[in-house]
Amino acid sequence: MAASCDLVDVDPPELQFPFELDKQISCPLRIANKTERTVAFKVKTTSPKKYCVRPNNGVVRPRSASVVVVTMQAQIVAPPDLQCKDKFLVQSVVVDDGLSAKDITSQMFMRDENNMVEEVKLKVSYVMPPEPAMEIAEESDIPKRILVPMQRILDNGRSGSELSSGNVSLRSAEMGTELGSPLGRFVRNEDMLKTASPVVETRVHAGSDEQYLELSALVAKLTEEKKSALEQNRKLREELELARRQASQHQGGFSLAFVLVIGLLSIILGCLVKK
Predict the structure, then answer these.
(1) Are 39 and 92 in contact (CB under 8 A)?
(2) Considering only CA atoms, which of 142, 151, 150, 149 is closest in space to residue 203?
């Protein structure tokens, strides 16, 4: 319910600021002219250094309204129990129809026998800020919690030196199932992304198209890098298999030569013994 006098209605009847330290807080104030004449208004406060009122005066045409924004400057200390004794005063007076805001003077709001000034007093109260929607915040963090570790894995865990040093086995690199494998984490994170897709989709549709495009581009980039890593791992496996075969052939040739030498020495020794 608005506070009122004979000339204007002021809404809200009490200025409520969700108090937060080190933060400017604004509260709109609507001043409605309920008469058929032009009314000038002026807004005053008991703490002018603490509050900023824009505009602090103005002209309201018949049956119309004007909105004033009251801004509380950032506070570094919270008052005990959030109690506030500040007050505002809205003064209104009937003026000529052709008057504009720049023509308003302080003498217009001085009371005398020929000048009827109406006043509306407003209290100020501090309220607790609304609690953030934790569920929404958690949903909005899902893409970051999934995609940032995936990007870090791709940046730090896809080099050929790491693959060849034994940190990632060829099978786990191909299948992405070995515990502790970067690609294994990639697959699990991808599964998490698929599981969380309804939540992500809801959040994306609720947000901007730009965020959706960035998310889609990042997912496409990660998918392409995954394919590239798997191709690199396949080539590395083929090279290792070829090296293993060459080593086996070399080992088999050495054994045959050794047998031939032993056989030849045996024949020579046999001939010597017979002589």
Answers:
(1) yes
(2) 142
